[in-house]
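user: At home tonight, take the chain set out below, taking as long as you need, and be ready to discuss the fold:
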Amino acid sequence: MEIDDPVLAAGQVVEENFPGCRVAILSDGVLTARRTPTSDLDIVVVLDGPPAPYRETMRSHGWVVELFVHSRESLVEFYQLDARNRRCSLARMCCGHVILDRSGEAADIQTEAHSIIDAGPKPLSSAELEQRRYFLSDLLDDLRGAIDPTETIFIASHLLEMAGTLLLMSEQRWTGTGKWLSRQLEEAGSGFAARFGDAFRTLSTESDKAPLVSIVESILESVGGPLTEGFSVGRHAPT
């Protein structure tokens, strides 16, 4: 039976598949104005232990359902895995709508998740910053010199992601990919998400690289400027 209401649908999924779970939380993206016709239900389910942790996708009650099944211990482990990539995907999901709280742990789980998000990722090391400046500078040169229209679009797509990610990392903010990169940039309040979108549309419709080049140049300047000559990695001094 199809259920239009995402909260009711998520509750049914949990009751039918995890009758003994401790906590279940529905990621709240589907409860906001960002919901689309293809939105799915992302549900974090907390069990006592095995078979957690695992991830599974199913279709139920008219929805595609993404299940992120964990124990309390594996939640911490996966928070740390996310953080190594300067992302907080699981923590964000755990801050969503509580579907079920048999063990009374939901508040503690959400407090922990909020604390992780608020703390932000670790800062870039000097070596990491140099590498990212170098590769972004190199790709920007590729865009400047690109002649083939198809290659230009592919380069620009990669450049947009690299530049947006570097901007967020340089400000010690969480990153993301796809729509989440856009949302993280929007949360940063810098206006870069809209500027990137406008610049990419200009490139796609008018073959004008200048707006995108200008944005990337400004990001590079904010982190120390372009880096090409003189960059070296992995070279060891002779003994």
Summary: The radius of gyration is 21 Å. The CA atoms of residues 33 and 56 lie 26 Å apart. Residues 126-222 form one domain.
